[in-house]
Amino acid sequence: MKKMIAVLLLLCLLLTGCGSGRTVKVDVSSDTLYVKAVENLPKDFILGMDVSSVLAEEESGVKYYNFAGEEQDLFRTLAENGVTHIRVRVWNHPYDAQGRGFGGGNNDIEKAVAIGRRATQAGLKLIVDFHYSDFWADPGKQMVPLAWKDMDIETKTEAVYDYTRDCLRQLKDAKVSVGMVQLGNETNGALCGEKTWFNIQFLMAAGSKAVREVFPKALVAVHFANPENAEAYASYASKLDYYKLDYDVFASSYYPYWHGTLDNLSSVLGTIAETYGKKVMVMETSYAYTDEDTDFFGNTIGAGGGVSKPCPYTVQGQANSVRSVVETVANTPGGIGVCYWEGAWISVGQNSWEENSAKWEQFGSGWASSYAAAYDPDDAGKWYGGSAVDNQAFFDATGHPLESLKLFGMLRSGNEVEVLPDAIDDTELVVDLNGVIELPETVNAVMTDNSRRAVPVTWDIDDAQLQQMYAGGPAKYDITGEAGGLKAHCYVSMVEYNFLSNPGFEDGTEAPWIVTDLGKTEQLYVEDKATDSLGGSWHMHFWSAAPDSVAFTLEQPVEGLRSGTYKYAISIMGGDCGETEIYAYVKLDGEIVGKAPMKITGYGSWDTGRVEGIEYTEGQTLSVGISVKCAGEGKGAWGKIDEAMLNSMG
Ligand code: CA
To answer: What pLDDT score was predicted for residue 23?
Structure first.
């Protein structure tokens, strides 16, 4: 009987790969998460997840759960939901002289081995991300490890080789299943304190050599950021080729907020794959499932705009963004995978900044601790704190997985549940102070398949509030409403509206201004020169050397006005003009109905002509303009025209 058990145990061990990992069955289903299957997804496509901060998170008391609501090993949960690889960053020595961690998980090779063991245990392969620095390395900084600070390039090259080999041996001794190794992190033209490709290539070659020796089956990757800069990427790839670096994978970060379109990403990576016969992948991507912060430390992505937002910040939007990146890479020549960045870096507590801060300092679970000042005083040493990406995790603030995590297990089969409204696009409305606030009757719902559909909206506003807006002068209002069961926003800007087009020539062209009676004016064109402009950087320039040769009018017809009272203004400055006859004017049905004389008095001395109280009735044609005649003196008459305005007076 004992023998039988022993044999069974042995069999079990053999079947589970002798401790080198067990395969977790991926079996996910969802009633709500919409996933369109990605066609042509290669069988061995890498679906990676960087969880470098996990140990520090757990030490800080964070618990992770499965979809049944039970506390469960994070790696197992990831594997059960279709993740295939775990990525981990490795810093040489992220500790100060007193042994206090710099934060960001305090990820040295010891941490990487511990994470690697657990990943392997869950049947996942490891992607090792050497930063060759004591702390964060990215396009902004590639600081040399303190211990290598004074090394010349030959000594540093040896150090990179020895260090890489020793680290990888530790992983090998721990029976960690290593699938890929990175030679630096986002190494846009710098690595380990070196800033010339001539030196960088020695360091990369040394790292590559060590990988080939210790893990001959692992892929060797280089990693860059900013694929929106196609020229830079082409240049990196050609330099690596020139220096004959031995590598397999050209990897890129792709954060949709900043990194250009997916078409561009595919074109940039596909070209490199085909030109140099390399594999390509997205090594880092992420997307916000909410704009709210949960750990009392501000996030990189919040409610504010200014970044590209291809999907709403919802759980479904997060899944849709990642799916589109996977689809893009899968359909790019040489595309082998996508890795998500820090999918489990959630809040270490729900109570207060003080409580969380103490944990970030003690366990390194924030992006940086105050101790990082010892190495990076200008950035980490100043702005240290918690997680800036807790709203981009696949787990909520209490460690429960989001429905979007199931995406990885559904990419092949799809999960085409009923398409429902998921978020409402914001509406922006610019209203003249004397105009009418007409809130839209429908708004765009972003559906769970990321398509858009017009849905009726009910705005939460009454007459009294509207009257306040009319009376409140220039201001911006956030009107909320309900559409398709979701919250809608209409941002109303009450402004003194300028009814002119291209009023300050900022379009860089003349249109729709029309020049007439040009006479012998030698120069009349729009000019890009901020110092000579009243507003913006463009203005209309004129010049003539001969006496009495400056003569022209600049006129703009205006359409779509409501009946009412209007005012018009335009400004001029110049010099050497001698006797002048200059005036701003307004025409109704071709007849000048208002005129304002203007003067040219010298460089930088702008004179504004104003015509007010123009009574306009719908059906009439209205044009505004400026008429300029200069006799000139000395070097010739010259001037600049800028900042025309046509506003309503009620
Ligand atoms: Ca945060």
So the answer is: 65
What is the per-residue pLDDT across 13-49, written as a single tens digit (0 to 9) for each?
444 433 444 567 888 999 999 999 999 899 999 999 9
The pLDDT tens digits of the residues spanning 246-295 come to: 999 999 999 999 999 999 999 999 999 999 999 999 999 999 999 999 99
Q: How would you classify the pairing of strands 46-50 and 85-90?
A: parallel
Instruction: Measure 296 CA to ligand 1 centroid, in angstroms.
Output: 6
- Token pair of 326 as six digits: 């996977």
Which is nearest to 21 in space by CA: 156, 112, 93, 119? 119
Confidence of residue 305 (pLDDT cuts 50, 70, 90): confident
- Phi, psi angles (nearest 5°) of residue 528: -100, 90
Please give the Cα distance from 486 to 489 (Å, whole number).
Answer: 10
Between the CA of 396 and the centroid of ligand 1 the distance, in Å, is 12
How far, in Å, from the CA of 348 to the mean position of ligand 1?
Answer: 10
Query: Which residues, including other chains, have CB under 8 Å from residue 114's CB and lie 6 or more apart?
Result: 55
Coil, helix or strand at residue 20: coil
From ligand 1's centre to the CA of 603, what distance in Å?
52
Determine the length of the chain.
650
Rg (CA), the chain: 32
**Residue 93 near residue 134 (C-beta atoms within 8 A):** yes
Centroid of ligand 1 to alpha carbon of 337 (angstroms): 28
* CB-based contact 554:514 (threshold 8 Å): yes
206 CA to centre of own chain: 33
Residue whose pair of structure tokens reads 């499932």 in the numeric block? 289
Task: Tell me the two tokens of residue 394.
Answer: 């696949």
Neighbour tally for 319: CB within 10 Å: 30
The per-residue pLDDT for 358 is 98
Give every CB contact of residue 564 below 8 A, 6+ residues apart in sequence.
Answer: 434, 616, 648, 649, 650
Residue 79 C-alpha from the chain's centroid = 28
Q: Looking at the DSSP assignment, which residues form a beta bridge with residue 141?
A: 138
**d(C-alpha 431, C-alpha 435), whole Å:** 6
First-to-last CA distance in the chain?
A: 99
Span from the CA of 377 to the centroid of ligand 1 (angstroms): 21
- The SS3 call for residue 70 is coil
| CA 528, chain centre distance (Å) | 30
Write the single-letter amino acid at 109: I
Burial class (CB in 10 A: 0-12, 13-18, 19+), 554: buried
Give the tokens for residue 148: 């290598």
Nearest to 348 by CA among 66, 55, 106, 57: 57
588 within 8 A of 549, measured Cβ to Cβ? no
Q: How far apart are CA 219 and CA 126, in angstroms?
A: 11
Catalytic residues: 186, 284
